[in-house]
Amino acid sequence: MWWWTVERFNKPKAVMDRIPTSKSERKLFFNKLGEQAPQWLKQTWESSKRQDTHKLTKRQINAEVAAARKRSGKNNPAF
């Protein structure tokens, strides 16, 4: 089971749902979930696509974060 938080009317709402097993149902599920996303998240997704950073792996993201922390002199992982 997965927990999703969906913001509606500026009030967070926890939603528990099962991710469907069939490919077509999963696609519909995630499309619907994306439509329910708050505006700030949709804007973040669009910005990521424009900058071509939406395809980064977790390892690449962690490497970028580590490099930024090293440049700023901050070693605290929990800012």
What this model shows, in words?
With 79 residues, the protein is of the alpha+beta class. The chain is built from three helices and two strands, in the order E-E-H-H-H. It has a two-stranded antiparallel ribbon with strand order 1-2. The chain is elongated. The two termini are 30 Å apart.
Provide the descriptors you would attach to this structure in a database record:
single chain, two-stranded antiparallel ribbon, 51% helix
Summarize the structure.
The chain is built from three helices and two strands. It has helices at residues 23-35, 39-50, 58-72; strands at residues 2-8, 11-17.
The quaternary organization reads as single chain
CA-CA gap between termini: 30 Å
Mean pLDDT: 80
Radius of gyration: 16 Å
Helix content: 40-55%
Q: Give the overall silhouette.
A: elongated
Helices and strands: which structural class? alpha+beta
| Poorly predicted regions | none
Run of helices and strands: EEHHH
The beta-strand count equals 2
- Beta-strand percentage? 15-25%
